[in-house]
Amino acid sequence: MIDSLFVLNATGKIIIEKHWRGLINRQLVEYFNDQFSKQSSPEDLLPIIPTPKYQLVHVYRSGLTFLSPVSNEVDALLVLEFLHRIVDILAEYFGELAELSIRDNFDIVYQLLEEMMDYGYPLTTEPNALKEMIVPPNIINKVISQVAGVTSVVQHVPNGSTISSFPWRKAGVKYTNNEIYFDVVEEIDAIVDSNGAIVSSEIHGLIQANCRLSGMPDLTLNFVNPRVLDDYSFHPCVRYNKFENERVLSFVPPDGHFKLMSYRVNLPHHQSLPLYVKPQIHIGNGGGKFDISISIRNTDGKPVENVLLVFPLAKSVSNVNATCNLGSYIFDPVTKSIRWNLGKIELKDRTPMLSGNFSSTEQTPESGHTITIDFLINMHAISGLKVDSLKIYNEAYKPYKGVRSMTKAGKFQIRT
Amino acid sequence: MTDFRISRPNFFSTPKKGENYELRADLNSEYRDRRKDAIKKVIANMTVGKDVSGLFPDVLKNMQTDDLEQKKLVYLYLMNYAKTQPELVILAVNTFVKDTDDSNPLIRALAIRTMGCIRVEKIIDYLCEPLRKCLRDENPYVRKTAAICVAKLYDLSPSLAIDNGFVSVLQDMVSDANPMVVANAVTALAEINESSSTKDIFIINTPTLTKLLVALNECTEWGRIAILAALAEYKPADSKEAEHIVERVVPQFQHVNGSVVLSAIKVVMIYMRTIKNDEAIRQLVRKMAPPLVTLLASEPEVQYVALRNINIILQKRPEILANEMRVFFCKYNDPPYVKLEKLEIMIKLANEKNIDQLLSELKEYASEVDVDFVRKSVRAIGQCAIKISEASERCVNVLLDLINTKVNYVVQEAIVVIKDIFRKYPHKYEGIIQTLCQNLDALDEPEAKASLIWIIGEYAERIENANELIVTFLDTFRDENSQVQLQLVTATVKLFLKKPQPTQNIVQRTLQTATSECDNPDIRDRAYIYWRLLSTDPQAAKAVVLSDKPPISVQSNTISSSLLEELISNISTLASVYHKPPETFLGRGRFGADAVQRRAIEEQEEASRESPIQAQTKTNIENLLDLDFSDTTTAVTTTSSLPSSSMSFTPTANVDDLLDLFNGNSITPTQPSNNQNNGLSNDLLNLF
């Protein structure tokens, strides 16, 4: 179980401190800060650090450290998953994860921590259930409570969420317009070598739902081709056995936004990535030349949008001269990288190219940096996964249904 | 807060009175808002470490309210300062007890939860009655909160929890209709069982097993983890039962929470020990791969724990991820701790089929910026060469390519691993020695230097200018690291034995310097032994120094089989991350003396079991030295014709003891000396 939680700001100062099993001396945090400051980058610190009495499990997000010392043998992954959950919940409650929002709402933070964990064991972590017990802050709530002195806490029991056989759905939901939307979002993680050969590639998909349906609808969602999935995990509402046997998603949805399903697909070998980056780099005397071109391959006729390519150069590079035939580029002298912002690439466009040269204070600047690229393709799921139909049972109304797909770059890296 | 008080004793405290005075006035204000704001301010002060315990009675007055938020804040304050104000807490008891009768279940649960958290002796007696009520509450939210409260009470007073029948109520609650209550009852029971001396509080029998399996599919993610942990402790009666349980556990592989997934994998791995049906095992192994791969797409922290566990799982079931090498390829922006773990696993997965792919990947890593990662990648190439003999030539070629990059640390690391390759495949790659020697000037790290010197000594007869090369090192003998010095002494002697004529001077000079000018006893002793050997019986010296080395093989970071089984039982826990049994890193001194002793003995056994492997795998030069060293002593003990010298050490006994002190590994060859001696060395060993 988890003994305590410290939330530290960027300088290592404690901004939230919660003990579930008796006080832990703050000196422990000083020890942690020592370790922390030894790293060249905060993300580099080992997530679990042993000390004689406590094992320090921590997560670093948005400049904040969530540190949990544990004194007994625990499920390490449980602690990490719980910390991730705290991070998610705080971000959801305050709109962003930041020191200021946590400081401003410390009373809510403490109430949340109290509700999320008891005696070191996770208690309630479902966002919907928490929101029924502790109302998220918003301007209107604040105004009302200041003007009328009305408390911001919901005065009813969290009955729907704890007693019903569908703990994720509250009873008595009513909408005048019944509608449900699904977003199929796929991210491509890929490593491509300088010749354009795929070293590794994977697609991580997520089906995000926004459900605004009255009553207790029981839904069945069919895919055209569920076989493409290599691995999948579901929101607790999905009936697992039904999917195992019939490959359909059968569920009573939570109200509002939720992640219905996430999945992984290995890109088949014969299928190509949506775009290819071809870098040609020549290191010469005190500098070098480069030519980077991007070609569109497999986008089902859709344009590629929000394209941003980042090309890091050696630390010794002082100056860059280049031209591009699409978008614009800047050289960031701090990170020593070229950021080429292409915007939208239409299929009819000429092959986008960025070429130029750089000068370096070193005779032979180091090479071998990895290019990353960001992009987005609307109305296209690279895995080929398609929703076939959605049927609704247990309710008489006919809801409006919508499905949207999108493919994005995840960790898309090109070696040079 | 205690530490705050220590760092700033009361009598030195700056007059914070002003602020506290104002807060006190506000806490007693007739206006509700003002009181509530004051409470918030008090909590805010508490958070930044200011001592606001003096306001205890004033805060307490605000406990009785129908404003739930305010009540929660007061409770928060109470939990923090109850320890320092135990007499005053009694004043709160009445409100607590009243709240456990409230019509709102949220308030009932809150009251019982908070009461349990106030770890004050005096309040315990008042806790029992409300707890009894809450355990039987009609609302499951209250019941599940009360279940955890029993564990809190047990921690404070085990007898009270048992005598009041709370523990047996908890045991009944495992059969509760609500899965959430079941999960919390299991959590509480597991905790109580762990801290009980008898360990018989939570025993799973067939009816509870059924309940657990039903609850498993219905409760929250955290409840599932608790139930899976309980299942991991259960010993299935036979293969059939194990298969039946596993069938219910496997769907948990599809949970979004990585911790649920890994807990399920733990249960399956443990139950596979009992399952006799080969087909079932094959099915399970097949089903385990995708969720493990998916874990690698999570946040880096989760990846780290997953990778450490995959490392264990692979050693037990190497077939699981045999075709998944690619998913372990490193992204350039993976955190360093993830990259290093991935490397380990790639070496484990390397085989004839995927070696080309792996080598080109490792070569790619060797050009990255992170020096530590580059070194480990070069080392990995060497380990592949040793592991897969069919591919050794390709590995050596990649290493040569890397040496040609002339990047200093890459060259040095490559030379270190090539030395191991020479050990594994003697006389196979002599052709590359010339290339290695060309980089002599670039070497500045002791390990790389020592490795190259070892190679020169070992292949002295093939290297035309071996003596010149050695001489260049000898000039700076005194300034070298002891590792290099030891290797130089040995290499010089080897050189002399292979090419006596031109090197007589060199060996004389080296041994002279080593024996008379070195502070390090290891080096002096070794030089003396060589010297004596050479002067007494050159043939024996040849037999000793030029003897064949035992072969090496790579089982990179292999875990001994008993530890492996223990770690598999601990998948997903800290032990699985550290690859150590829990007792070795947890709460020092909290375990009984015999537990420590038992652990020490086991560890020693493990060490002696592991040592042959370590000696083989550790690319560390010191182990090579140790092997040379022990070879030497074998000969010393057998030839035993040493004249007693002016040095006057009684050779066998002393050398043995010294050896035992320095390395437990090498006792085997020295064993046949004599009984007394054995006893002595054993005693010495036991000390460590």
Describe the structure.
- Chain A: This is 23603_t:CDS:1.
- Chain A: Pfam families: Adap_comp_sub, Clat_adaptor_s.
- The complex is a heterodimer of chains A (416) and B (688).
- Chain A contains eight helices and 23 strands.
- Chain A has 416 residues and is an alpha+beta fold.
- Chain A folds into three domains: 4-148, Beta-Lactamase; 179-269 and 382-411, Sandwich (Immunoglobulin-like); 275-378, Immunoglobulin-like (Sandwich).
- In chain A, the strands form five sheets. In chain A, strands 11-13-9-8-23-21-16-19-18 form a nine-stranded mixed beta sheet, with no helix packed on it. In chain A, strands 2-1-5-4-3 form a five-stranded antiparallel beta sheet.
- Chain B is mostly helical and 688 residues long.
- Among the domains of chain B are: 204-295; 561-583 and 592-687, no CATH class.
- In chain B, 45% of the residues are buried.
- Mean pLDDT of chain B is 81; it is low at 1-15, 589-594 and 609-688.
- Classes of the chains: A alpha+beta (416), B mainly alpha (688).
- Chains A and B meet through strand 2, helix 2, helix 4, strand 7 and helix 7 of A and helix 1, helix 3, helix 5, helix 7 and helix 9 of B.
